[in-house]
Every structure is written in structure tokens, then in C-alpha cells.
Amino acid sequence: MNPAATFSPPRVVPNLAHAWGGVWRLTFRRFLLPGHWLTLAAGLAVLALMFLGGVHGRDTDRFLGWAADFYVTLLVPALAFMAGAGAMRDELKSGTVDYVLTRPVPRPAFVAFKFLAHTICAQLDFLVAFVLVMVLARAIQVPDLATIGPKLLLGQVLMITAFSGFGFLCGTITSRYVVIGLVYAGVIEAGVGQIPTQVSKLSMTHQTRELLGILLGRLTPEATSPGLAGTTGLILAFTVVTLAVAAAIFTWRELTGPADS
Amino acid sequence: MNAVAQAENLSRFYGMILGLNNVSFAIRPGITGIVGPNGAGKTTLFRLLLGQIQPSSGELTVFGERPWNNPAVQSRLAYCPESEAMPAGLRPLEWLTGLGMISGLSAVDAGTRARAALARVKLGPEHWRKRVTAYSKGMKQRVKLAQCLLHEPQLVILDEPMNGLDPMGREDIAVILQQLAVEGVSVLISSHILHDLEALCADFILLRWGRIPRSLNESTSAEARTRWPEATTFRCESPEKLARFLFARDLLRGCDIVPDTGTLHARWREPEKFFASYHQLLLESGVRIFEVQGTATFLEKAIDPTVHA
């Protein structure tokens, strides 16, 4: 070996701010593709059918039940999870492994940048869906949408953030992320989350459902309820923890090429 | 001169599967060819150099540092993979600008360099509106090479960059690689097109079954490359007459004659003896010669000793 050898410094110095810009560009461009908009349009059509099947007439309670218990805390988390995990699996394909991950961006920073870029794009997509829900609600003359809307939107934003992070973690661990997602949904969300004790706070959807219930006047706050700031903090902490674990796994993961993914 | 990459007793196994087995080498500045059959360990070696996988044992340094997960090393490297997989839906300028920014360039610089890199690989602006996934194989090779040039790397690693290129395209790529070498950039290139490699490379690393056999690498040494070919093929008016003439002067160790094509495949007893005065000898033979051809390149012989030598 030749330990005394000296080499000239790199001609382009790595820059994290520029790297974030690059990751954002490459991610955002994919959201502008015609294929993506076609998929979104098809998804919106299905959502409209779900809305019409789940909400009838000028019934505010029925709308709130559908929006808070199904749309925000079941449909959105499931789709955000799938999109997040899929995005991470895409990063383990040749297009990223060979071209992006051979460049001087630390892998934890790459996971963070990718999460930010993906989540911003996902929030924009789901915002379109949310607008559709509001338009449909207005069409069937659900009253007081100006008050209800922001609260539901807050729940949606929190759910997308949390479950995109969880999707990133599962996508980093395995290509069979759906299995982990189903196990998590069965054990934590449908199991532990339904137990009427403090342990149910492990369920992010339970947290959000409770928060929305209180904000929308459907539930009476309990002494132990964490409130808006507490729930937001818990969900953000969940996101940070899942992302940190995803980044740690991704950092130590060997990239042996497309066959590995 | 400092070796840009050095390995000592480097091994890499994938469970029970052999990737590289106890190889030692030094990659010096200039253009180095990596040659070996499929499964020889070329891509494993590239991934080790790129810091995407860790050695199972042994030592590897690139620019004096261990490359595994090391952005300081990656900032000096560029990689052009063999795979044609490219991100869907992106146009070349968008893609290259994004990649340039990830390498550390500002958006403006990345855009400027992306245009310059595409121009350098002769992918004109008329092609920039097309999405890269819609490109032909040759155009993909060019844009793949362009993404290597964005951040002025000091070591460019190219896995089969000549695949899918026509002769003019191969020449274009060869010129760019030679220019890079003149600019002080080290180039590590694998290719199955051995003639191109022979013309391009100053050094070679030959891999077989994850090893670097000493005998193979000696056969590609600079000294070995100056040796005369051990066999020559003549297309001529009368191969039998030429064979008799050469046998009479004790020049041939053996020969094959194909009368239909008028071909004599001559295996030399002492090649230097024939080549020292071959003009004179061929004139003396009185046989009209149409074509003279070395039978196998030194790389072909090194890789597959069963080819005509």
C-alpha cells in the first residue's frame, strides 16, 4: 500500500444544500409526468365513488364519520405508506444506485432529502384529493365546511407525514413492505390502537382520530388527551424515529445492484 | 507515480458465492482496461471501488482512503454502469442538472456543465427534448458518459461503455477517454470489444473467476505486447505453395490450409525470425498475397488460450 501518497482535492466540493436541490429536482420531475397525473385522475375517480357510497344527503355526522374515520385515518395513511415505501424501493433500483448513490451525498442526508421531497409531492397530490372531497361535500350541501375543512386537512397532513416515514422504513428493510405494513396495521392500528388504555397511543391513526374527534366536536376531551400540540408532536416524533432507523439501515446497507433490489 | 487505487489481498464473497478472491493490484493514472469473461468479478470490483459494498477481507484504498460509504472518495469518482436502466420520464438536461447538483454544483453551474457534457459526447440539442428512456442504445451510452463528466472526476469507471455503439460512436468515446487521460483523469474501463481496449489502454487487469492470475497479467505486460504474433493468416493465390516455401526455411511449427478461401494459417516456430525479413521472404516465395492478418490479439490470447496462437 502507499499511505504516504497525496492527491489533489476534489474539483467540485460536495455541498448538501445543492444536493438537496438535486434530489428535489429529480423527485419533483417525476410528479409532473403524464403517467403520474393519469394515475392521480383514476385515484380521484375512485375516491369520488367512495365518497358517494359513504356519504348521503346533507348529513354532517355521516360526512364527518366518513372523512375522519375512513378518509383521513385509513385511506390516506394506507396510500401514503404505499407511496413512501415504493419511493424508497425505487431508490434501490439501478437508476439511483448507479447514478445518485455513487455521488458524494451522505446516505442519511440522502434519505432525509428524499423523504422531504417525496412528502412535499405527496402532500400536493393528496391536497388535490382533499379539494375533491370538499367539492363533493359542498355539492351535497354539507354545512360549515369552512370550519371543518382546515381541521381535516391538518389530520391529512399529519397522516401523510407519519406514514410516508413509516413507508420509507419498511421500503428500506424489504421489498415485501406490504407484509410489514399489514402486520403493523393488524397489530398496532387495529389491535393495540383499539385498547381503551394509554397503550393505544402507540397507534398514530388512533391519535389522529381522537384529535379530529375533539377538534370537530365529536368527542369530549379527556384529561389524558395530548391536545393539538401533543398529538402533532407525537406524530412528528414517530416520523423522526422511523426515518432515523430507515437512514441507519440505508447507510449500512450494501448496494450490490439491481438484482439485490 | 501515485496509484489512484490499490488493493492488497482483497476478497469479496456473497455468502458462498465468490465475487473476488484475494486479488492485489494498483491502478495507475491513465487508462486501465479491466478484462475478463462474464462473472469474472468486474462489477464486484467496480462496486468495491465505488464504496457501495465492503470487502470481505483485505485492503482497498482509492485516493488513499477506504472507499466504503465515503463521500470524500465519491466526490472524485464517476461511474458509467453497464445497465441501461435510467430514471423514467426525465429529459437529459433535467437529469444531468439534478445529478450535477447532487455532486455539489449549483443549479446554474450544473445546467451549464450538463450542456457542455452533452455537447462533448456529441449529443446535440436536437435530442434534448426526448426523454432518456426513449433514447437508442447508442444515445443512452453517450448520455451515461456525459453524466460522468459533470463534476470533473479524477477517476472515471466505465462498465462496457462501447456496448451498442457503432464504430464512429466507439471512436468518439475513445477520443473523449484519451482526452480525459491527457487532462489527468484516470480511467478504468471494462469492455468485451478487445480491439478497442488494446488501442486505448496503457495497463490491463485481467480477471478470471474472481482472481487475477499472475500468468495472464504477465501476458498483457508492455513487454509482452511488443512480441511478434505467434500465428498469422495469409489469404493468397496458392496457400500450399506458400506453406511449402515457409516449411523449407524451417519457419513453421505447423499450419492449416483452407483451399476454398485460399487461406493459410501459419503457426511460427520463431516469429521474430519471420518478421525480421518478411517482405523479402514473401517476395521470394513468388506467391501473390492478398491479405495478411494477425490471428489473435494479445488480449484474446490472454483471456482464452484456446484461440489460435
List keywords for this structure.
A: 261 residues, mainly alpha, B: 309 residues, alpha/beta, 12 strands, 37% helix
Your description of this structure?
The complex is a heterodimer of chains A (261) and B (309). Helices cover 71% and strands 0% of the residues of chain A. Chain A has helices spanning 16-31, 34-54, 60-90, 94-97, 107-139, 145-173, 177-189, 204-215, 227-252. In chain A, α5 packs antiparallel against α6. The model of chain A has no long low-confidence stretch (mean pLDDT 87). Chain B is α/β, with parallel strands linked by helices. Chain B has 13 helices and 12 strands. Chain B has helices spanning 42-50, 71-74, 92-102, 107-120, 137-149, 167-182, 194-200, 214-219, 222-225, 239-248, 271-276, 278-285, 298-303; strands spanning 5-14, 17-27, 31-35, 57-62, 77-80, 155-159, 186-190, 203-206, 231-236, 252-258, 263-268, 289-294. In chain B, the strands form 3 sheets. Chain B has a 5-stranded parallel sheet, sandwiched between helices. A 4-stranded antiparallel sheet of chain B has the order 10-11-9-12, covered by helices on one side. In chain B, β1 (5-14) and β2 form a beta hairpin. Chain B is globular. The model of chain B has no long low-confidence stretch (mean pLDDT 87). Chains A and B meet through α1 and α4 of A and β1, α1, α2, β5 and α3 of B.
